[in-house]
Amino acid sequence: MRIFCIGRNYAAHAAELKNEVPTEPVVFIKPESCLVELGKGVAYPNHGSELHHEAEIVVEIGKDCKGISEEDAVEYISKLGLGLDLTLRDVQEELKSKKLPWEKAKAFDDSSPLGKMVDFENQDIENLHIACEVNGEVRQDGNSGQMIFSIEQIISYLSSIWSLKKGDLIYTGTPSGVGKLEKGDQIRVFSEHLGEASWRIL
Known about the structure:
alpha+beta; Fumarylacetoacetate hydrolase, domain 2; 6-stranded mixed β-sheet; 33% strand; globular
């Protein structure tokens, strides 16, 4: 199982980080050790000092596929859920300044907490709500309709490069409002369509 992540997929988020709006999906991959189950704490990484939350809609691939069209993409979705793409922003900025890969900033242990996945039953994937609060304060509030690249486009694009496998996860990008986390913070992601999940930063 692989974790595919899409960066800069909401224009407002790209703007808040002063990044250009991409013309094709920005893709990076995380190992399985990044996942954190519900009910478990998230360990604050020891190689950075600016841990940021990025709430994301997560898609699970239900069957193997390669080179599929956007029109057929929904046939390969098995589940939907909510997750976090935790980012060490200070480490990421240093890596970007040196034109180096982002793995140390994005793919460390516990960087992808994942909520309960729900069966895909033809939900309107162009209109999925997602929000994030820290210690009861709402920081992010968005909708999949604001994505630069739709879920169908993302699946088709990934399948044009990689053979997608049953169980692969796709983190589809984060809306604006990302911010810093501290040890002890309680972070909650929620959606009127996909439920909720929460974790504490240890």
